[in-house]
Amino acid sequence: MENQGFWNTHSLRFLEMAYEAGFIERIENPDGYGSRTGDCGDRVAFFIMVEAGLLTHISFEVDGCLNTVACCNTVVRLARGLSIEAAWDITPDQVDAYLETLPEDHYHCAELSVGGFYLALKDYASKS
User: Fold this and answer.
1) Which residue among 14, 67, 79, 105 has its CA within the 20 to 30 Å range from the CA of 23?
2) Which domain covers residue 90, as residue numbers?
3) Is the dihedral angle over the CA atoms 12, 14, 17, 20 positive or is it negative?
4) CA torsion through residues 11, 14, 18, 19, sign
5) Are 110 and 71 in contact, with CB atoms under 8 Å apart?
């Protein structure tokens, strides 16, 4: 019965992002890489590929809860095709709004995901 509450509590968008597996991939020799571990113990790593200043491929690895997975997938969804400059404008608030039903006590998952992504952007900038 408790599991049924989970399915009824979350938006379709949250559920899609929590169970999406298509962006989970380790890229060898990415243009940018960033890894971060949250206070909760969840770990994220982002891999980006850039062509002509645009994010052409973004993937991640995650060791964490469904909330963190949903946030990582949302970051990819929001960032794909953006310029590097525009990607810096992605915020945890945008991730939270996109998911619609991220539990308030898991907002740190949005911060962790965006922070890991920012580290990949920073890595790319340091190599350019």
Assistant:
1) 105
2) 2-127
3) negative
4) positive
5) yes
Pairing of strands 32-37, 43-51: antiparallel
Work out the widest C-alpha separation in the chain, in whole angstroms. Answer: 53
The predicted model scores a pTM of 0.94
How confident is the chain (128 residues) per 10-residue block, as mean pLDDT?
68 95 96 97 98 97 97 98 98 98 97 98 95
SS (H, E, C) 4-52: HHHHHHCCHHHHHHHHCCCCECCCCCCCEEEEEECCCCCEEEEEEEEEC
Q: Residue 9: what pLDDT?
A: 87
User: Domain of 105: which CATH number?
Assistant: 3.90.1010.10
If one counts the domains in the chain, the total is 1
Spatial separation of the C-alpha atoms in residues 70 and 48, rounded to whole Å? 18
The first and second tokens of residue 61, run together, are: 């690895």
Structure tokens at 74: 């949302």
